[in-house]
Amino acid sequence: MKTPATFRQITLFLCILLGCANMALADTELADTDNIRMLDFVIMSHGHGISDRNIYDDKMLRIAKNHNMTIERSFNVKKFIMGDELLAGVIRINVWHMPKGALKNLSEDADYQSLIEFRNSIHDMAALSIFFAEPDSIGGTAGHTILADLVVMAPDFDVNDRQQYENSVAPITQRYGMTRFASYDITKKLRGVAPEHAVRLNFWNLENPENMKLVGQDPDYKALVSYRNKIHDMAKVTLFFASENK
């Protein structure tokens, strides 16, 4: 049964209103640091696409720089591979770098407030998903083909279990030209349809996407599959092919 349009509109309005307020509040509750990352999974509204988002990003960056906010990494999604179907519409993943309090200051900026109507008109604001995160020590360079890997754990398992798994799988994936070049540990979900219990966002370089099949066929990897399936919520672990947005 379809939800009545008026109810959807009211729900969206409340989501936008309360979401922005909660994001600004969460921003002020963070530890004193200039090392905050915000992971932005961009989902557009019907009839809008990457060109509209480019216009928005250009406008947004001019405002954001006044609050020491920058886009550290940006990737255009080429294909939803598997995982949470609610994220199948993601077209871009931005990683923002900002100091504590930046979102609160941004929300009070008159130039940003004048951009909100345009922002709301081109995005699916109820679906667009945002997390706070901390960067891993990895500082690699993006290659031609990228795998974005949103990690969601099963109940009773956490990012430490994931790290143990990644330590085991890394020598295997490296055999086939698959190496992790950036990683962000999620500290808080702010809004959107993304899984509530996502713990990490990884970016991998792929020498050849077809080699992912070879990883899956490797006997050493097959030996890890049972453990992999045990510690992850495999229905929610979400993978995308992407390319760097330069």
How would you explain this protein's 3D organization?
The protein is an alpha+beta fold and about 250 residues long. The protein has 2 domains: about 5-135, Alpha-Beta Plaits (2-Layer Sandwich), CATH 3.30.70; about 145-245, Alpha-Beta Plaits, CATH 3.30.70. It is built from 8 helices and 8 strands. Strand 2 (about 70-80) and strand 3 form a beta hairpin. The longest helix has 25 residues, at about 5-30. The radius of gyration is 18 Å and the shape is globular.
Strand content: 25-35%
- Shape type: globular
Instruction: Please identify the top-level CATH class of the largest domain.
Output: Alpha Beta
| Contiguous helical run count | 8
CATH topology of the largest domain: Alpha-Beta Plaits
Summarize this structure as a short list of keywords or feature phrases.
246 residues; alpha+beta; Alpha-Beta Plaits; 2 domains
